[in-house]
Amino acid sequence: MAHAGGTGYDNREIVMKYIHYKLSQRGYESPPPRPRPGVSSPRPPRRDFAEMSSQLHLTPFTARGRFATVVEELFRDGVNWGRIVAFFEFGGVMCVESVNREMSPLVDSIALWMTEYLNRHLHAWIQDNGGWVGARLGV
To answer: Residue 124 domain-assigned?
Structure first.
């Protein structure tokens, strides 16, 4: 992974790899192809994330607000590694649901929002707590 100015891993790269992983688990390409008019894409099974994604009510107009609301609530009482994992899982669920609902252009936006949030709000905490390597080692 690329290092950002010697201070740690590149958050954008981490976000993109995670989103690719989540989409590939569901049988999607990453980045997903843009839908062509009149062509439907196969849908993967929606087992474990069905309940969460059905509550999102995602549209291109509501996605940013839903993301901000959930993330604000997630970190309301502070930051820890468990909440950072939940942050990634939530972003992944949003991306999968966007592709499921034929709104694949939202994937790029969600990746951007995740990266911006990591850079602005979580980067210092991550560095102070061992960085991404520390997370892997359970520091």
So the answer is: yes
d(CA 23, CA 72): 24
The count of other CB atoms within 10 Å of the CB of residue 66 is: 16
Instruction: State the Cα–Cα distance between residues 128 and 135, nearest whole angstrom.
Output: 11
Query: Which of 117, 6, 96 has the alpha carbon at shortest distance from 50?
Result: 96
Residue 1 lies in a domain: no
Domain region containing 24: 11-31+49-131
Beta-carbon count within 10 A of 114 CB? 27
Q: How many domains does the chain have?
A: 1
Task: Report the predicted TM-score, pTM, of the whole model to 2 decimal places.
Answer: 0.77
Question: Could you read off the pLDDT of 19-57 as tens digits, one per residue?
Answer: 999 999 989 875 544 444 444 443 333 344 446 666 778
pLDDT band (50, 70, 90) for residue 94: very high
